[in-house]
Amino acid sequence: MGPHGAKPWTYRAGPGPWLGSNPTTLPIVIIIIIMGLLSTAALVQAGRNRASNNFMGDVNVSAILDSFSVSYDKRVRPNYGGPPVDVGVTMYVLSISSLSEVQMDFTLDFYFRQFWTDPRLAFQKRPQVSRNNGITKTNIHYQISQIEMLSVGSEFITNIWVPDTFFVNEKTSSFHKATTSNEFIRIHHSGSITRSIRLTITASCPMNLQYFPMDRQLCHIEIESFGYTMRDIRYKWNEGPNSVGVSNEVSLPQFKVLGHRQRAMEISLTTGNYSRLACEIQFVRSMGYYLIQIYIPSGLIVIISWVSFWLNRNATPARVALGVTTVLTMTTLMSSTNAALPKISYVKSIDVYLGTCFVMVFASLLEYATVGYMAKRIQMRKNRFLAIQKIAEQKKLNVDGGPDDHMPKQTAVRFKVHDPKAHSKGGTLESTVNGGRGGREGGADEEAGGPPIPQHIMHPNKDINKLYGITPSDIDKYSRIVFPVCFVCFNLMYWIIYLHISDVVADDLVLLEVDK
Fold first, then answer.
1. Residues 418, 420, 424: CA angle, nearest 5 degrees
2. Radius of gyration from C-alpha coordinates of the chain
3. Closest CA to 390 of 440, 348, 433
4. What is the CATH number of domain 85-286?
5. Domain Neurotransmitter-gated ion-channel ligand-binding, which positions (predicted)?
6. Which of its termini does the chain have fewer beta carbons within 10 Å around, N or C?
7. What is the pLDDT at residue 45?
């Protein structure tokens, strides 16, 4: 104990409360702090390097683009005075919105790409041009060799030479500008250039409608230079047969895209020879609409006209109304069908079918007219026979001294008979009963008693109900068989011939792949 009874004060070394009770913690904390400082310094340096690299890359690309304007004349084509510029072309059709028979054109939306080489735009050997304190200096930066291709906006197209390509059979065209101009330029380090643009074009398409609606149309787009002849520009399909692609999503209400093909040709005009490319797309028409709206209704109208053959020939109002209605319906159907087509002078496939149907229903109406005429002629002949027989019987009674003996002898009854034998000679037999005179028309008078009445008139046989060896009922019976058989045979010949003739595929056609 110390003085005044207090305990003596002592010091014991040890870690403070922030270090914990373990004496090895201090070195670990120091190491962690040092590592954190080193990592932070490394991240800061990396950020500075990336910023510097990006800045140098941006400066490098801008310098390359700016260097193109040095001694570059966009009014002169590449290799001027030398070989022509080869311009490769590819197309990819996105959609085909319409194909009009009346306007004879079609509208399609597609990507149009052109490829050519301009040595003046090669930049692999061009030095970077940078500025330092306002003094221009030239040095080769290592990043230039790493840039293979430059993608620039459509604004750059105004600074370089481009082919004056146009579409020969174009009617109207439009560029797409939503949300910006749908166009880009890519410049390869070797000087090759790719230009891609999206276009919508309405082009003329002369159509042959001879097999309509079983036709196949071949529409084309023709590509050519407007001013440069073959001494300056030669067009080619850049990827051969695969230069044109058509999306499988392309669809039209009345057509299907069968396939496409490419051609390259040389066109001779008064201003020179020009290189031209043609992309041909073949369409096949869908028959569903025309089967439902035209072929089936017209066939049913013909069948309805046959009902007249089963009606009684004395039902004149019903048969006439049915025949006239079917004829007018076919006329209306033919008019409405041709109203939606161009006014062409040659006969179409559908005209053959509708014309035949019209002839069939008109023949049904004429059949009833024939039946009615024959029935009337037969009835008139029967009435004559009955009248002649009655007169002949009266004459016989007078000759035999019957109840009419008290009548004066001079009383006479005059009649005319269409004797077939006399008719063949151009006259009619006239007879006078009971003492009258008789003779042939235009001939001399016969004896006072008159000629005897022919036996086939006095006693008609079973042919009295026939005209030309046939009865009106026989015509109806034959028509019930002949008309359907003729119509069925016509349909067989029509569909076999026209489907076979119209099933023609263009040579070298690249068929469109259809998703299964």
1. 110
2. 51
3. 433
4. 2.70.170.10
5. 63-281
6. C
7. 63
Give me the sign of the Cα torsion angle 227, 228, 233, 234.
positive
The residue to which tokens 């035209």 are assigned:
294
First vs last Cα of the chain: how many Å apart? 107
Q: Which residue has the higher pLDDT, 77 or 461?
A: 77
* pLDDT bracket for residue 62 (50, 70, 90): confident
d(CA 243, CA 237): 6
Torsion on CA atoms 293, 294, 296, 300, rounded to nearest 10: 110
| Mean pLDDT over each residue of the chain, to the nearest integer | 78
User: Distances in Å between the alpha carbon of 394 and those of 370, 390, 397, 412, 434?
Assistant: 36, 6, 5, 11, 9
The 10 Å CB-count burial string (b at 16+, else e) for 8-19 is eeeeeeeeeeee
User: What does the pLDDT read at residue 411?
Assistant: 44
> In which residue are the tokens 């259809």 written?
514
**Strands 105-117 and 85-100: what pairing?**
antiparallel
Per-residue tokens: 45? 């340096």
Over 237-250, what HEC string results?
ECCHHHCEEECCCC
Separation CA 305–CA 488 (nearest Å): 15
Tell me the average pLDDT across 414-436: 46
Average pLDDT over residues 418-431: 46
Is the pLDDT at 330 greater than 50, yes or no? yes
Domain boundaries, the chain: 85-286, 291-502
As given in the structure block, the two tokens for residue 443 are 């001939």
Q: Whose CA is closest to 511, among 211, 201, 284? A: 284
Same fold, 85-286 and 291-502: no
Dihedral sign for Cα 330, 333, 339, 341, please: negative
- What's the CA angle centered on 400, arms 398 and 401, to 5 degrees? 65
Give the tens place of pLDDT for each residue, 264-307.
999 999 999 999 999 999 999 999 999 999 999 999 999 999 99
For 481, residues 6+ apart whose C-beta sits below 8 A from its C-beta are none
Taking the C-alpha atoms of residue 254 and residue 411, their distance in angstroms, rounded to an integer, is 85
* Amino acid, single-letter form, for residue 146: Q
> Which is nearest to 483 in space by CA: 394, 403, 384, 366?
366
pTM: 0.69
Fold of 291-502: Methane Monooxygenase Hydroxylase; Chain G, domain 1 (1.20.58)
Which tokens belong to 9? Answer: 């004060």
Is residue 148 within 8 Å of 142, Cβ to Cβ? no
